[in-house]
Amino acid sequence: MDKRRFNANKEEAEQKVERVTDKTPAPARRPLTLRDVSEASGVSEMTVSRVLRNRGDVSEATREKVLEAAKRLGYVPNKIAGALASQRVNLVAVIIPSLSNMVFPEVMTGISEVLDETPLQPVVGVTNYKPGREEKVLYEMLSWRPSGVIIAGLEHSDASKAMLKAAGIPVVEIMDTDGEAIDAVVGISHRRAGRKMAKAILKAGYRRIGFLGTKMPLDHRARKRFEGFTEALAKEGVEIADQEFYEGGSALAKGREMTETMLTRTPDIDFLYYSNDMIGAGGLLYCLDKGIDVPNQVGLAGFNGVELLDGLPRQLATMDACRSEIGRAAAQIIATRAEAPEGEGGKERIELTPKIETGDTLKRR
Amino acid sequence: MDKRRFNANKEEAEQKVERVTDKTPAPARRPLTLRDVSEASGVSEMTVSRVLRNRGDVSEATREKVLEAAKRLGYVPNKIAGALASQRVNLVAVIIPSLSNMVFPEVMTGISEVLDETPLQPVVGVTNYKPGREEKVLYEMLSWRPSGVIIAGLEHSDASKAMLKAAGIPVVEIMDTDGEAIDAVVGISHRRAGRKMAKAILKAGYRRIGFLGTKMPLDHRARKRFEGFTEALAKEGVEIADQEFYEGGSALAKGREMTETMLTRTPDIDFLYYSNDMIGAGGLLYCLDKGIDVPNQVGLAGFNGVELLDGLPRQLATMDACRSEIGRAAAQIIATRAEAPEGEGGKERIELTPKIETGDTLKRR
DNA sequence: TCGGTGTCTGTTAGCGCAAACATACAGAAA
DNA sequence: TTTCTGTATGTTTGCGCTAACAGACACCGA
What we know:
The structure is a homodimer.
Chain A: H1 2-8, H2 13-23, H3 34-41, H4 45-53, H5 60-73, H6 79-86, E1 91-96, H7 103-115, E2 121-126, H8 131-142, E3 148-152, H9 158-167, E4 171-176, E5 184-188, H10 190-203, E6 209-214, H11 220-235, E7 242-246, H12 251-265, E8 271-274, H13 277-289, E9 299-301, E10 318-319, H14 323-339, E11 349-351, E12 356-357
Parallel strand pairs in A: 1-2, 1-3, 3-4, 4-5, 5-11, 6-7, 6-8, 8-9
Antiparallel strand pairs in A: 10-12
The first copy, chain A, binds a DNA duplex through residues 33-35, 43-47, 49-50, 53, 55-59, 62, 77-87.
């Protein structure tokens, strides 16, 4: 009333009336609670709760009465209250760096496949490869008291690690196994993957090898692949002949550009190793455009094994990162531990082995 | 004591001792609560709560004491309890059909950009284009009592619509404006987009036009584009010369296959309209492989304007679907209404206008 | 001196639900 | 008959937090 009067001092008295009548028809309904359903069906709240959760014995007659009332009212249980009362929150926090590069959506698919069979539900948080954001996202997630955390990578800020340890819930670090885990790990060794590819390239007879990738201060997995790669080359007395890094933009286009740059700058290059398939595909398209003989004049390889590659004019050599398997295995660990008697199991470590797919861009011998 | 005694009657007395000592070293810590912080800092729970939420007046000295204690203990507030007590849940449910096709991640980016400036947080649910799953995901989401819902498309089951209406929270349907909205809408008219492309193609002089797309009983937006497309052609007395649909698999590869199929079956085709850029790109690669003169012998066009296209040998003609703008606008509506005095605003309707990007695969005149 | 006016801190109650513990009652067993 | 089952329902309590209100205290001017 008081506020209204205030406004009325101005010029819009009539208009206001309009607006008010305009609002009145709105339902303005207080959100439904168990009590509403209980009253509508003539049983206690507890019985309604039992029916809706399918727990405990309830006679068929009551069950039907309750379900009918719930449906008629359009009641949706309040999980906030339920979770607080039962001390169980069936959420799994999934923290990943990005959704836009094809790899994490596939991990998510694997996770969902497994969790769909359980009462657990994934909730995604995206960090954009920034440790600061990771910390914030993690904090937000943990404040919902999830049943478990699946988080990409082994590198986290001290604060993040502390939170994960203190949370007292299963934590699965995924994608990477090169490093020390907080709890469980599922992934591949990127260092080993880099080495493996290096060996395959050398074995195929290439010697003037260029590397093209992301600027990777924060992409630890790409860095580890690079390290493993150069290390294995060094063991055979080979050094990277040239390298080129990019940031942002369309990966396919960047792959093209970088390839052009490198082949111009170092014309005797005979192999291009790309840190992901997208830029690899760009490079491949560039080479084909220019009439470069792939794989004889120049060989190419990428990383990830993304589905996209199937549609390219040639099959790019790559290495499957086992994305959906990783998702499935991680989800499985969380699901198992969530059911376990408490403090059960622990520190699982699953290292998957990526396989080279030779495709058409790596000479066979 | 009593229970112990019970078990002791059996044979495992000594083992039990072992097990107990085995468990004892485990932290077995009860999750931290406000009370723990309150005791550690010597103030009331309420004061701790005020400090952690930056609300109300607290002296600098107490504030520091509390923050120190909270950090030292590693306390993370329990949002479940907070939300229940305050009746405010700063979550926005975002319900989309898929994450793996480049379009929704970009919408998500737009949403996040806007929500990052607010206390709101997006939570994603994926339906895989299945109405049944949409219903389930929606129910799950609503049971967390979010502050708003952003949901793709205008077609929902009756149950879903009922839930959305009954929820009493802002609902923004995104991507599509061809149909009746529950509350607010942000999107483009796909029917109009189809018509626009048809007109452009006809104007460029093409007449034997093929359509390639997804099997679309459930992809309503693709269907609407198709309808608009054929309708505009019909107006000029042109009929679709051939059509081909796919399901699943690598879109790029499918684009290739379908293009081959169609050009073989109907060799006099002079234009291929693809329902998305990915299959369009596959078609383009196929044509270039076969030495087909693009755009003179055959013209091509896709839909979406995905970044990927930048790296192709030719620029595929396409139409930008305004994905991140849609995300931003939708999030803005939710954010504004979440702050509004209640029942404020409503039924916003934002129709964006996609622009044709002619690229290199549509003759210019 | 007395309130008055802030500033800071504490107390009480309850959000909506589920765990744990009653209670009621029918039928079976003794 | 009584007692013992078990099934079906209800009651009480509290999850961890915040809104709303209620002190306590210092400081000001009259």
